[in-house]
Structures are given as C-alpha cells and as structure tokens.
Specification:
heterotrimer, A alpha+beta (97), B alpha+beta (363), C alpha/beta (369), A: alpha+beta, SH3 type barrels, five-stranded antiparallel sheet, 32% strand, disordered C terminus, B: 363 residues, alpha+beta, Phosphoribosyl-aminoimidazole Synthetase, Chain A, domain 2, 60s Ribosomal Protein L30, Chain: A, seven-stranded mixed sheet, five-stranded mixed sheet, globular, disordered N terminus
Chain lengths: 97, 363, 369
C-alpha cells in the first residue's frame, strides 16, 4: 500500500496554506506537488510524496546515520569473523560478493 | 551469499511465491471490450484466442508473431499490419504518422525480411485540421524515405465528430525474406544470448507525460525509430539471428515472455543489464510502474548464437537507435517455458504477462 | 543522497540477510503489514534471502484488497450516472464488484477517469461545472491527508459539483484484531512506514506492550525491510517487545501534525467492513457531518446499496496467518484469480493469488479451475 516517492523541490509557489505547492523533481521529471502538510519545506529539500501531497521533509542526516550504522555493523562482524577464523586456524567463513 | 545459494534455496523446501507486480488484476471474463483488451497482456491474448484464432485458424496465425511469413510463388513474403490510435497524436519525439510507419516496418523487419511496400488507411474525425493531417503524413514520408519503402496504396474514411479521435491510421507492410533465412522462436535454443538494442521505456513515458490526469514535465522523447537497417546490418555481418521481436506494447518483458512460451525455453535476464534513463525511472517510481513493461517503439530483442554476440553488439551500436545495446540475458536449459529475472541481490523471480495495461497506482 | 538507490544496495542487503541468519536461533513468524512492503519483498525476492527459521506472513495492508464489495458496488452505481465524472486512483479500476469493475462501467459508457492526485479530481470539477465530479477516496492513513486536502480545497472554492465516496481504513485496529485472535501466529510486526509518516507510532506502543509484540516501523527498500526484520529478530531473541523506528528519515514519533490536523478536520473514526475479515470496530474514517454536502453516498442516495460477500471465503484466516491459502477447501476450486470469492484472491499482492500462481506452476493443471 501507499507508494511514497522521494523527490527534490526545485521551486515553490503560492502562499496560502491549503494551496502552497512546489515543482518537485523525480529523477528529472517535474510534477506539481502540494506542500500543504510541510509548510517548512523549501527549495532543495527532499520530500516524500504520496498521491500528489508531500507527507514529510526527508531527514538526510538520519538516512546517512542508518547507512553508517549498517556499515559499522558489517565491519564489526568482519573483524569478529576474522578473529574467529584466526582462532580456528582456518578460514571457514566463506563469503561471496 | 552467492547467487547459486539463493537460486538453490528458492527451488528448495520454501514455497516460492511468484506474483505479478501490479495490483490488482484478475483477468475476468467480460462481455464487452474494455481498454485492457488493448494492453498487450493476458487480456489481449484471451481476446485473440476467443474471437480471432478460432475464426481464422491457420498455421501462420498460430505462430503468435507480429507478422507472418508466407510463400508466394518461389519467394517468401513477410506481411504485417498494425493500427495506430495513440493519444495525443503529437507527443515528444514523434507523432502518430512516424509511429505508424516505424511500427509496421519494424514488424516486417522482425520477421527477418527487408521491408519494401506499405499501405496506409486513414480514419479521420470530422473537424480534424488538415494541417495536422499534413504534418502526420509528412512524418510518414520522412520515415519511408529513410527506410527505403514506398507507400503504394491507401484509403481515407471520415467519421462524424465524436466518433473518432482526430486521426487513426492502419498500415500494412510487406517485405521479402531471403531464401534459407529463418527468424522465429522455434530456432531459439539453450545457450543463445539475448541482446537488447536500446534503453527501456521512453516511448510509453513520453506519451504518458502528455496525458490528462497524469501529465508531468519531462525532456524524455519517444524512442520511435525504424529498426530495419539495424536488422539488415545483423544479417550482412553474418550474425546467426535466431529470433527478433520489437518491444512495443507490453514492453521488453512481454516480448521475452511470448518468445519463451512459443519457443518452450527458459530465459534468464539480469536486472542490472539494461539501460533506463533517469527520467524514465523517476516517472516509473512516481506512478508505481515497471519499466520492463513500458512500451518502446525503437527497441528490439535479438536472440543470437553465443559466438556472434560481439559482432551483433558492434552492428547494433553503430546504429543511432542502438547506442545502448546490451547483452541482457541467456537461454537456459529448458525446464519451464518462462522468463526469470535475476536481481543483483542474487535472487530471482518469474516474470509474467500483465493482464491489461499498467495503471498508475498508489499502493 | 538520493534516498532510494542507497537503500537498494546489494551488498548491504545481503549482509543484513546473513546477520539475520546468524542471529535467528528460533523459528519466528513476522508479518509485514503493508502491501507495499509485500510488493518490495516479491519484486526483489527478499524472502529467498531469509533463513528457513524466519517466516514472513503478509498482512492486510492493501487498500485494494480490503475495500468492501459493497463500496465497489456503490462506486459502480455512482459512476454509471450520466451526469457523473468518476475519478479514481488507477488501482481501484480492476477490483471486481458484484457486477463487473469500473473498467466494465467505462465500457458501458460511464465517464471514469484515472487521476494521480485527489486534487486533480478537484481540478476536473472546476473544468466541468455542468457535471458532478466524484472522487473514490480509498486508502489507509497515508492517503487520508491527500483526500482531506482535496475536500478542503473544494470547500474553500465553494464547489458544488464535487463529492467523495469515502472508504478509508486504519492500520492499528486491524493489527490489534489480528494480534487479539487467540490463534494468532504473528510474533513480530513490520509497521507500515508511510502510515507512520502521517500518524506517528505512539499508537503502536500500547499494542506492543499488550500483545508482547515487537513492532518495527519499516520502510520499503530492500535495506529497510531486511534491517526491520533484523531489528524484530533481535527483540524476539532477547525477549523484548517495544516499538522501534527503523525508518527515521521519514517518520517521527508524533507523525506529521499538519497532516493529522487536516485529517481531524475532515474525517471522524467509524466502524468499517474489511473485505475478507468483516467489521472491525473504529477501523476507518468517514466524513464529518459538517462536510456531509460532499458525501457522494448521500448526494446520490447509494447508502442502501448492499452486497454480500461469499461466506465460503476464509481469507480472514489467511490474512491473520492462521491458514495457508491452499488449506482452504475453495482454493483453486471455486475460488480463482479470475473468479475470486474473497479479498486475498482479488489482489495480485494477496496471498491466495500468489499461492494460486505458484501452485498452478508447480502442479500443472491439477488445480486449474
């Protein structure tokens, strides 16, 4: 359910809350989107769009954090498994790409 | 985890669920024609089976190709017909006239033939500006000149205002197939390589961008282009071309599924192998569409012998319509007649025909 | 940061799956609530990456699946009127009612149009002052603000030729209904990310505590889904059951206050019938009385149009993960994708439709109706 698609605001228009909108770029195509629910959004922001309405301004810092955490977890596991295989004396931990 | 692990697992104990990625789509039995019957998917096939195949039963119709190769004296004639009702009739990168010529010429070329002559029938709505018709016809002539075919006969009918959509065109093309040349699904065999001549989805998205209700701004242009010279180039270079299909209505996916089903082979394609322009991808994400099912009008799949891949790609890439030609897959040992999509994650799923056309979705 | 490509990274996805395989010491059944997540799982083949110990069951989160037959029938009646232009999301056009779908209505002469946004339907109303324009306002919480916005715009513009046929459903009551069932198999839950973008996730906290159910707010890309499953498994292995936000880039605990205010202004909570499950108390929205003038059911007097769902359908049990589709006696016998008896055979995201396709392939014509 509920397709939500990230897009970047290239231009805002209108002032009145219900009718404030933006031209939003989705990989280069431009679509008019309502900003009625994200009055704080401005040009350059990434918004999550569902059925023509921006539902939130996406948090870039959080997105980076999530990916960094994941990367750290993977590195940590690699170190652990290296130590483990050193201890076992043979490299059993086979890992494909 | 390697790709083999994943492949082994999904045929293992765990139930593998193959679902069609459009929601929802029961193929109901219907007593009237609905738009989905024109979508090039299961509903189109059912209509053909229910209404046409029974009435016009013959071996050529049964081949489920976009054209037929028939004997005529000592020669073999390829013949194909197609009707064009695209709305809007002028779209970024082309118009209904260019489409009508390219489409039919391409269908003839997919039979392995050199296209020679074309007929054109026009159904015009009362009130259509003559200037629009003039533009459309001149686009047709430009393609005819480029390809070297002649529009040798035609027909014009006018319907009352409101009973058509300005201009509909039917074109029929004929061409000659060189002696001994066989280009058909039944020549496809294990080990053949699947080549795709272009990037995916531009025509469908360009036309959609101009439609009321879903309109958006884009620089995407239709890929509408004649493919006859590319095909001729393949033969001239001595490529063993087993089967060809242009990826129009229903997109690359439908073209591959139809070939796999008729040839009774399993085709595996890789999801990172083909090119999709960023804007096409953007539109697909936004409306929940699968680019592999979006129509193209200047893009073909070619099944070729494995030893001819390099040669074939060189020919394709030398053609303006073939800049993005890629090897996208392979014919596997035939267990089931189906197309499998192998993802870069190492997983795979079966690709099935859609029931009708893809619709913009919210879920 | 493009917010999509990064979260489809092949290596990160596979490594997440490996970590799940290493950490799952028991058999766990996890439900992804949202049809969009089901879609991603199928599209990317994510279930094939999971170890046998982790079983995914698909939840009721497909608005197309759960919109009751009765509402489709009402839509068909309204759409078939000569004075009506009926606007809908593309999803709803192929959902069968008692007598055909909206495409059939169109083939019979109805003016049915696909729109991308509910506000596009308002624009159609502006352009066609001599016609009644009706928008089919379906969906979960995610879609409610867009539908509310369309109504508020029409109201502000004083449009008298715009109305809505409303069939909104809410996720938490459905989740509670599933968790409450004494035979519930679901042990962990991936909450629907975009629903939470609008509503936040505070509502899920009492559910997690009451039903001892780990709930992870989860996004829709491969990395998101596998991270969500991993977080769920970790809670399960450690005996925890709290709400975690695994979709921080799009979800705050309180949701979107502006969106919620708009929903609050236009809609009020009501009981709703879920196709295949039945009535769930306080599980949907209807228009508030002050906007009754925009209620298509009232305007076109279709409040009494009723329809009876087949009693043979056991999709409610399927949706709760209690039976597998092929354990239903009607499966592939009277109930097929072409002639569905219930919700889960309707949508291609539905579990029965998925099983039907799989079984037919596996067993040839054996189960062909």
């Amino acid at each position: 359910m509920c397709l939500g698609v990230p897009g970047q605001i290239v231009e805002t228009k209108g002032e009145e809350a219900l009718f404030r909108g933006a031209r939003v770029s989705f990989g280069g195509i431009l679509k008019d989107v309502s900003l009625a629910c994200v009055p704080e959004a401005s040009v350059g922001d990434w918004v999550l769009v569902h059925a023509g309405l921006a539902l939130t301004v996406l948090d870039e810092q959080d997105a980076r954090q999530q990916l960094d955490d994941l990367r750290r977890m993977i590195e940590l596991e690699d170190e652990l498994s290296d130590e483990l295989s050193d201890e076992l004396g043979e490299g059993e931990q086979e890992r494909g790409a | 985890m390697s790709g083999n692990d994943a492949g082994g697992k999904d045929t293992g104990g765990k139930a593998r669920l193959d679902v069609q990625l459009s929601c929802p789509a029961p193929v109901g039995t219907r007593d009237r024609v609905v738009l989905g019957h024109g979508g090039g998917g299961l509903m189109t096939n059912r209509l053909i089976e229910d209404v046409f195949l029974g009435a016009f039963d013959n071996p050529w119709l049964g081949t489920r190709h976009d054209g037929a190769v028939v004997p005529l004296g000592t020669a073999r004639l390829a013949i194909s017909t197609d009707s064009y009702v695209v709305s809007p009739m002028f779209f970024p990168g082309g118009d209904i006239g260019k489409l009508a010529l390219c489409g039919t010429v391409n269908d003839v070329a997919m039979c392995g033939a050199r296209p020679l002559y074309v007929s054109a029938g026009f159904i015009l709505e009362e009130g259509t500006p003559i200037e629009a018709l003039r533009r459309v016809v001149s686009s047709m002539q430009a393609v005819a000149r480029e390809v070297g075919v002649q529009v040798v006969t035609g027909d014009t009918k006018v319907v009352e205002r409101g009973r058509g959509d300005q201009i509909y065109i039917n074109t029929t093309g004929v061409g000659l197939v060189e002696a001994g040349r066989q280009v058909a699904p039944n020549r496809v065999r294990e080990g053949d390589v699947v080549l795709l001549s272009g990037d995916v989805g531009r025509h469908g998205i360009a036309v959609m961008s101009a439609r009321e209700g879903v309109a958006f701004e884009t620089t995407i242009e239709s890929d509408c282009a004649p493919l006859a010279s590319m095909v001729q180039g393949l033969f001239d270079a001595g490529v063993d071309v087993r089967c060809l299909r242009d990826c129009t209505r229903g997109g690359v996916a439908s073209a591959l599924v139809e070939i796999a089903e008729v040839a009774r082979v399993e085709v595996e394609i890789r999801d990172d192998a083909w090119v999709v322009e960023a804007e096409v991808l953007g539109a697909c994400e936004l409306f929940g569409l699968d680019p592999l099912f979006i129509a193209n009008e200047g893009c073909l799949v070619a099944f070729v012998a494995p030893e001819d891949v390099a040669k074939a790609l060189a020919v394709m890439r030398a053609d303006p319509a073939g800049r993005h030609a890629r090897e996208v897959g392979r014919v596997m040992k035939a267990e089931r007649a189906e197309v499998r999509l192998r993802s870069s994650l190492g997983t795979s799923r079966v690709i099935e025909l859609l029931s009708g056309e893809q619709l913009p979705r919210i879920c | 940061m493009k917010f999509v490509r990064e979260f489809r990274d092949g290596e990160a996805t596979q490594r997440c799956a490996e970590t799940i395989a290493r950490e799952a010491r028991h058999h766990w059944t996890i439900m992804e609530v949202c049809g969009g997540q089901t879609h991603s799982i199928m599209r990317f083949g994510l279930d094939a990456l999971l170890p046998p110990a982790v079983e995914l069951v698909h939840g009721p989160g497909c608005p197309v699946c759960v919109t009751p037959l009765e509402l489709i029938d009402k839509a068909l009646v309204v759409a078939s009127r000569d004075d009506v232009i009926f606007c809908s999301f593309g999803d709803m056009l192929r959902v069968p009612g008692s007598d055909g779908d909206l495409f059939t209505a169109r083939a019979r002469g109805a003016d049915v149009r696909i729109v991308y946004a509910p506000t596009d339907a308002v624009a159609v109303a502006h352009k066609n002052p001599d016609k009644q324009v009706v928008f089919f306002a379906v969906g979960f919480e995610t879609t409610a603000p867009a539908n509310a916005l369309a109504l508020l715009q029409a109201h502000t513009a004083g449009l008298t030729n715009f109305s809505m046929l409303v069939s909104h459903v809410l996720v938490p009551p459905a989740v509670a209904a599933i968790a409450r069932s004494p035979t519930c198999r679901v042990q962990g839950l991936l909450a629907a990310g975009h629903v939470c973008t609008v509503m936040g996730y505070a509502e899920y906290e009492p559910l997690a505590a009451q039903y001892r159910l780990p709930i992870v707010v989860t996004g829709f890309e491969p990395v998101d889904i596998l991270s969500g499953i991993l977080a769920c498994i970790r809670q399960l292995e450690q005996g925890q059951f709290v709400v975690e936000n695994g979709y921080g880039r799009a979800v705050r605990r309180e949701g979107n206050a502006h969106a919620r205010a708009m929903i609050e202004e236009v809609f009020e909570v009501t009981d709703r019938v879920w196709r295949g499950i039945g009535v769930i108390a306080e599980s949907g929205y209807r228009l508030r009385a002050k906007y009754a003038a925009f209620d298509a059911e009232v305007r076109f007097s279709v409040e009494d149009v009723g329809a009876r769902e087949s009693t043979a359908c056991r999709s409610g049990l399927v949706l709760q993960g209690l039976i597998k589709p092929n354990e239903c006696s009607e499966f592939a016998v009277r109930c097929t994708p072409e002639n569905p008896l219930g919700a889960t055979m309707v949508s291609s995201e539905g579990a029965c439709a998925a099983y039907h396709r799989y079984r037919r392939r596996a067993m040839g014509r054996e189960v062909d109706a």
